[in-house]
Amino acid sequence: MGGESDNAILEQLQDLDRRHHLHPFTDAQALTQATPFLIDHGQGAYVTGQGVRLLDAMAGLGCVNVGYGRAEIAQAAAEAIQALSYYHSFFAVSNPYTAALAGKIAALAPDHLNKVFFANSGSEANETLMKLALLYWRAKGKANKRIFITRDYSYHGSTIAVTRLNGNQAMLDDFGLGLDDGVKRAMAPYWYRCGKDMSADEFGLFAAKDIETKILEAGADNVAAVIAEPVQGTMGGIVPPKTYWPEVERICREHGVLLIADEVVTGFGRTGNWFAQETFGFNADMMALAKGLSSGYAPISAAVISDEIASTIEQNTKILQHGFTTSAHPVTSAIALKNIDILEQEHLVENIRDNLGPLFGKSMVGLEDHPLVGEVRVNGLIAGVELTRNKETREQFPLEANVCNHVSQMALLRGLIVRPAGNVLVLCPPFIIKPAEIEFMTNILRDSLDETYRVLSAA
Ligand SMILES: Cc1ncc(COP(=O)(O)O)c(C=O)c1O
Questions:
Q1: In the chain, where are the structural domains located?
Q2: Which residue's CA is minimally distant from atom 7 of ligand 1?
Q3: What mean pLDDT is reported for the chain?
Q4: Ligand 1 atom closest to Cα of 234?
Q5: Rounded distance from Cα 165 to ligand 1 centre (Å)
Q6: Residues enclosing ligand 1, CB less than 6 A?
Q7: pLDDT at 2 over 70
Q8: Could you tell me which of 288, 320, 294 has the C-alpha nearest to residue 73?
Q9: What is the average per-residue pLDDT within 422-442?
Q10: Which CATH number does 37-66+347-458 carry?
Q11: Residue 6 confidence class, pLDDT cut points 50, 70, 90
Q12: How far apart are CA 195 and CA 392, in angstroms?
C-alpha cells in the first residue's frame, strides 16, 4: 500500500472493521472511536501492517511457531483442498490426512497418550477433555466425580465451561458467571508473588499442597480432574518451581483424580521438548493441544487421552455424544501434518533446547538489573518479565497505571510486538527467530523500559 487509492482502500477497510467487526478481548467502546490496525503480511518472524514492519515477539498469540508465510504449508493446504475440501468424521468415517495426523500425534506424545479427538480451538479441546473426564468417571461407576480443580492466574479459553476454569475473575463477572459448585480454584505456583518467605523449591511443594487441600475440601470422591497449564502463559509467563509438577502428579494419583495438562501453548516444542510434561517431569492422563499444532495456520486442536481412559470409554459408551462439523477436517489436518514435518525437518524443537532457549533465557534474565524489573521467568522460548514499583518489597504497580501497556507501546513504536498481561510483559517468539533478532528484541525492550522509567520518574 502507499498510493492515494491504496490509502482510500485502507480507510474504507478500517471503517468497515470499526463498524462491523466485534473484536475479542478489545475495549469495544474505545474501538468505536479509534482506528483498527490492519496487518496484511507476515514473513518469518515479522508482520507488516500499514507499511510498518514489526518483529513479532508474541508469534501471533503464541502460535506461529514455524514463522509466517511458509510456502510449503500453503502448498499442502492447496493440495488437500483440491483432493478433499471437506468431509466429516462422524459415523466412523475418516480421511487420509486426519488418520496420519492422529498417528503422528500419538507417536510424538508421551507413551500412554495415544487417542486423539480433534476440535477447532484450545477452548474446545479443554471442554472436550472436561466432558471425556465426566464420561470416564461415569463409565467407572463414579458419577459423583464432577468437580474440576483449577488455579489462580490460569487461562483455558473462553467458552462458558472453560471460562469457569479461568483465574481471570473479570471473564466470569462480566457475564454473571460464578465458579458454581463444579470448580474449585487452588493457588498458582507463582513464587515471585505468593512465595516470598520460601525458597522456590519449598514453594513448589507448598503450591502443590494447596491442590491437595482443594481436593480434600471437595472430597476426592467428588473430584473429576485437576486441569492446569504446565507454564501459565497468558496470565504472566508463570514458570513453576521444579518441585511442583512431580508433586501435583503424585497428589492426583494418591487421591484418584485425573490430571489434565493444558498444553495449548506449551505443546509442540515451546519449552524445548515436544511437550512440557517432558520438561517438567510428569505424566498427565489427558492433554489439550492447539496453537502449535498448526502454528496458527488453521483452526485445529486436539484432545489427547490415555490408553486406559480411551479403553474405558470405548467399552462403556455406546455412542460418543460429542463432536463438531469441522472436527478432523482434512485440510486443517494436512496443514498440521506439514507444520509438524517442518518442526522435525528443521530440528526446531531441539534447537530451542540446545541453542535458542539458553540464548533467549540469558538475554531476558539480563533485564533483571533494570530498576523496573522485579523478576524474569523463562523456559524455552516463553518468558514473563514482571515489573515492580519496588524491587525490595515487590510492590505491584496499580493496574490502572498501565505501566506494562506503556512499555509495550514504546516497544511497538520501535518495531517490536510484546504483550502486556497486568504487570508482566509476556514474550513467546517464533521458533525460527535468529540470535540477532533476539538481541534486537532485548535492546528494544530495554530502551522501552528506560523510556517508561523516565516518564514514571518525572511524574
Ligand atoms: C493455555 C491455553 N489454553 C487454552 C487456550 C484457548 O485457546 P483458544 O483461544 O484457541 O480457544 C489458550 C489461549 O490462549 C491458552 O493459552
A1: 37-66+347-458, 72-345
A2: 122
A3: 96
A4: 16
A5: 12
A6: 61, 121-123, 126, 155-157, 229, 233-234, 262, 264-265, 290
A7: no
A8: 294
A9: 97
A10: 3.90.1150.10
A11: confident
A12: 14
Angstrom distance (rounded) from CA 71 to CA 79: 12
Residues 35, 81: Cα–Cα separation, whole Å: 35
What percent of the chain is predicted at pLDDT more than 70?
Answer: 100
Taking the centre of ligand 1 as the mean of its atom positions, its distance from the CA of residue 157, in whole angstroms, is: 5
Per-residue pLDDT for 181 more than 90? no
Q: Give yes or no for residue 198 having a pLDDT over 60.
A: yes
The preferred substitution site among 127, 150, 155, 166 for testing ligand 1, maximizing ligand atoms within 8 Å of CB, is: 155
For residue 366, pLDDT over 70 is answered with: yes
Best residue among 156, 159, 227, 426 to mutate for probing ligand 1, ranked by most atoms within 8 Å of CB: 156
Q: How far is the CA of 302 from the centre of ligand 1 (A)?
A: 12
18 CB neighbour count, 10 Å cutoff: 15
CA-based nearest residue to 445, from 383, 398, 392: 383
pLDDT (tens digit, 9 = 90+) per residue, 115-146? 999 999 999 999 999 999 999 999 999 999 99
Q: How far is the CA of 275 from the centre of ligand 1 (A)?
A: 16
The residue behind cell 514453594 is 203
Topology classification of domain 72-345: Aspartate Aminotransferase; domain 2 (3.40.640)
Write out the three cell numbers for 303.
Answer: 484432545
User: For the purposes of burial, counting CB atoms within 10 Å of the CB of 2, is it exposed (0-12), middle (13-18) or buried (19 or more)?
Assistant: exposed
What band does 35 get if pLDDT is binned at 50, 70 and 90? confident
Which residues make Cβ contacts (< 8 Å) with residue 234, sequence separation at least 6?
62, 155, 265, 421, 426
Strands (E) located in 362-458? 373-379, 382-387, 416-417, 419-421, 424-427
Q: What is the DSSP letter of 222?
A: G
Rounded to 5 degrees, φ, ψ at 361 are: -60, -45
Would you say the pTM of this structure is higher than 0.85?
yes
Which amino acid type is present at position 179?
L
Measure 65 CA to ligand 1 centroid, in angstroms. Answer: 15
At 28, is the pLDDT very low, low, confident or very high (cuts 50, 70, 90)? confident
Q: Is the pLDDT of residue 178 over 90?
A: no
Kindly state the average pLDDT of the residues 237-253. Answer: 98
- State the distance from the centre of ligand 1 to the C-alpha of 52, rounded, in angstroms: 28
